[in-house]
Structures are given as structure tokens and as C-alpha cells.
């Protein structure tokens, strides 16, 4: 099912919760809806489902007006954070519930439920009750129940939030494979940006009731349209004041007396910072002198905090590379800086890498 939302607004009394929201979702895509708490994610999900009515605006399913359709007419499957399983029903009856409502034959229900439980890795659990299952198993039952009536649209509201971190990571890949198997259009709300980046075809970022950006995880990470998106997706060093970094003369044009001009935001991704020995001879004058202040082990990398001039930056170092210690003098090569102004956004490259000053040995 192809989804299109046009000029969607929602008021709760005097509060304008959703503000002129527009987006479309390609049939069969898995789309993550993310943003800060209270930003409007769940309100958008509830309007798509029919549980809430928009104040103004239109919702189209496959090009047909769906704004005023009832929940039952929309052909939607739901999965919620708290599973919402029927506690008094067995796993089999939970999954079969929607099919019984649709008055499907016993033979069809038996075949469909057996197929889904096998796909979910729950074969043999048909007679168990929800309280006899782990959190991950209960959520799989919730997915099976949602998929049983063959919905055209699947809506997921923080589906893995109540599950342990290790199991949650396993379920991400499982969800991606599941959607590929069923090819059902899916919109899922999550507060976990890593989850969205890992499994989604596209991400829609919502802040204060507005769409900040929609695009693939790669597009949003590498080409954020605002400083909010850049700081919300992934990690960034926020440069709060002007620093005359080598190779970035443009920065001098957007500051006045050491302060950024109004509406200017400057960020540096940690992967754009290369930490080298202080006596490096490779593009030495294109880098900045610094001192390591803290080192933290992150499993597959070292997290380094480095003081350079009046600011502190953080970067990552592979565990296979040289290990720096607090107090070590280093040379840090900044490859790129992201600059956001009222007029435009740009990623600027270190010009000193192209024409560095000579180093005589």
C-alpha cells in the first residue's frame, strides 16, 4: 500500500500538535518515524490508523481518500510497545483472533496460524499463554497476530522498547527480514535512532509537530538539512564558539568577535576527526595541536576526548590502532565541518589538505 499524507494538522484544544505534515511512503517500504518525546510521532501514527481524526488535512491509501475511513475499513495491523496480547487466550488463539473476526474457515485459520508461528520461531508454543513467554517471544506473537489478516499497512509503536537491549538488537534484523518476506508497507515509531538507521528504508524525523527531514538513513546522516537533524542522528561535536581551525577560512566569515552570527550552527562528526601522533609528518600543518584528556573503552573502539585551544572535541579510535593515554600530546586532522546558516547548509572540506605548508625535517 502506498501512503500519502497532505497538509495534516491536529489540535488538542488550543495546542497545535501536528503542523502541516506532508510525506509519502512507497509500497512495501519500512519507514522509521523518529524524534524527541512529545514531538508528535504517536499522534501521526494514530491518525493513520484511524484512532485519531485530523483537524485538517488528507490521508490517501493507494491514491484513495482514507481520512474518514473507520479503523476496521483501513486494513491495518498494529503492534504496540506493551504487546497488548489477550492474557486469557493461548498463543494460538491470540494469533487467530483477527481471522475469527473476519469469519475465516477453520482450515484457513489453522494453516495461517501454523505458518506464522513457524515463521516467528514459535512452533510448539501454540498452547502456551502470554505469561509463559519471554518478552521477545510475546512481541513475536504480537507481530504474528498483526500479520495474520494480511494487512496492507503495519503500524508499530515502539515495538521493542520493553525488551532487553541484547534481544532488541536481535529483533531488529528479524524485523527487517520479516518485512522483506511479507512486503507489507510498515511505519514504526521509535526513540532509538540506531534502530531506525539499521532497519529502515527511509526515516522521517519529527520535531515539535513538523517534519524536519525525510530520506534514507545514509542521506539523512550525510546530508542533514538542519543542525537539529545533524545533532539528533548520530553524534556530533557542537562548536559553540569560533575557532580558527586550519584549512577552514570560511568560518571567519560567519563570526563576529569570536561569536557565530545569528542562526549559525557548526558541527563536526567524530568520524571526521583523525587523531595522529603529535610529531606526525603527514599533513601536519593541516591539523590542530591537542591533548588527550579522557579515554573510554567502547568495545570495538576507544572514545577519546581531546582538548584543543579553547574547546574539547571527541573522536573514536579503532582498538587496532595506537592507544592514546590521558595527557598525550596529539595532532588532530579535521577533514570536514558541517555549517548550518539561515541561508543554506554546507559541508566544508579542509583546504589545508590540498595545499599544506611545507614541513622541513
TrEMBL record:
UniProt domain ABC transporter: residue ranges: 3-233
EC numbers on record: 7.6.2.9
Keywords: ATP-binding, Nucleotide-binding, Sulfate transport, Translocase, Transport
Enzyme class: translocase
Catalytic activity of the protein: a quaternary ammonium(out) + ATP + H2O = a quaternary ammonium(in) + ADP + phosphate + H(+)
InterPro entries: AAA+_ATPase, ABC_SmlMolc_Importer, ABC_transporter-like_ATP-bd, ABC_transporter-like_CS, Mo/tungstate-bd_C_term_dom, P-loop_NTPase, Sulph_transpt1, Transp-assoc_OB_typ2
KW Oxidoreductase (keyword) present: no
Iron-sulfur keyword on record: no
GO terms assigned for molecular function: ABC-type quaternary ammonium compound transporting activity; ABC-type sulfate transporter activity; ATP binding; ATP hydrolysis activity
Source taxon at top rank: Bacteria
A GO cellular-component term linked to this record: ATP-binding cassette (ABC) transporter complex
NCBIfam families hit by this protein: 3a0106s01
Subunit comment: The complex is composed of two ATP-binding proteins (OpuCA), two transmembrane proteins (OpuCB and OpuCD) and a solute-binding protein (OpuCC).
Protein name: Carnitine transport ATP-binding protein OpuCA
Lineage: Bacteria, Bacillati, Bacillota, Bacilli, Bacillales
Record gene name: cysA
Amino acid at each position: 500500500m502506498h501512503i500519502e499524507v497532505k497538509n495534516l494538522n491536529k489540535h488538542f484544544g488550543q495546542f497545535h500538535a501536528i503542523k502541516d505534515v506532508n510525506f509519502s511512503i512507497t509500497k512495501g517500504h519500512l519507514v522509521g518515524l523518529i524524534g524527541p518525546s512529545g514531538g508528535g510521532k504517536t499522534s501521526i501514527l494514530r491518525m493513520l490508523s484511524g484512532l485519531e481524526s485530523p483537524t485538517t488535512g488528507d490521508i490517501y491509501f493507494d491514491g484513495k481518500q482514507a481520512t474518514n475511513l473507520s479503523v476496521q475499513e483501513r486494513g491495518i495491523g498494529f503492534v504496540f510497545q506493551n504487546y497488548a496480547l489477550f492474557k486469557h487466550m493461548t498463543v494460538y488463539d491470540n494469533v487467530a483472533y483477527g481471522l475469527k473476526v473476519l469469519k475465516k474457515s477453520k482450515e484457513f485459520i489453522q494453516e495461517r496460524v501454523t505458518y506464522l508461528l513457524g515463521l516467528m520461531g514459535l512452533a510448539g508454543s501454540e498452547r502456551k499463554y502470554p505469561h509463559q513467554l519471554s518478552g521477545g517471544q510475546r512481541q513475536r506473537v504480537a507481530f504474528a497476530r498483526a500479520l495474520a489478516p494480511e494487512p496492507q499497512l503495519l503500524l508499530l509503536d515502539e515495538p521493542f522498547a520493553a525488551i532487553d537491549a541484547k534481544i532488541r538488537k536481535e529483533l531488529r534484523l528479524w524485523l527487517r527480514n520479516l518485512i522483506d518476506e511479507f512486503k507489507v508497507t510498515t511505519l514504526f515509531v521509535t526513540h532509538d535512532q540506531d534502530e531506525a538507521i539499521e532497519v529502515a528504508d527511509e526515516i522521517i524525523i519529527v520535531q515539535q509537530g513538523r517534519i524536519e527531514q525525510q530520506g534514507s538513513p545514509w542521506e539523512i546522516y550525510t546530508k542533514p538539512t538542519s543542525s537539529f537533524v545533524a545533532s539528533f542522528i548520530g553524534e556530533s561535536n557542537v562548536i559553540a564558539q569560533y575557532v580558527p581551525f586550519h584549512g577552514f577560512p570560511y568560518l571567519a566569515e560567519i563570526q563576529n568577535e569570536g561569536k557565530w552570527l545569528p542562526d549559525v550552527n557548526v558541527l563536526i562528526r567524530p568520524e571526521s576527526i583523525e587523531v595522529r601522533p603529535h610529531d606526525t609528518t603527514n599533513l601536519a600543518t593541516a591539523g590542530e595541536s591537542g591533548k588527550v584528556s579522557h579515554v573510554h573503552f567502547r568495545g570495538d573502539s576507544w572514545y577519546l576526548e581531546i582538548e584543543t585551544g579553547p574547546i574539547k572535541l571527541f573522536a573514536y579510535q579503532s582498538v587496532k590502532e595506537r592507544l592514546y593515554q590521558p595527557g598525550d600530546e596529539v595532532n588532530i586532522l579535521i577533514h570536514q565541518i558541517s555549517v548550518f546558516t539561515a541561508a543554506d547548509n554546507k559541508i566544508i572540506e579542509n583546504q589545508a589538505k590540498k595545499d599544506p605548508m611545507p614541513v622541513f625535517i
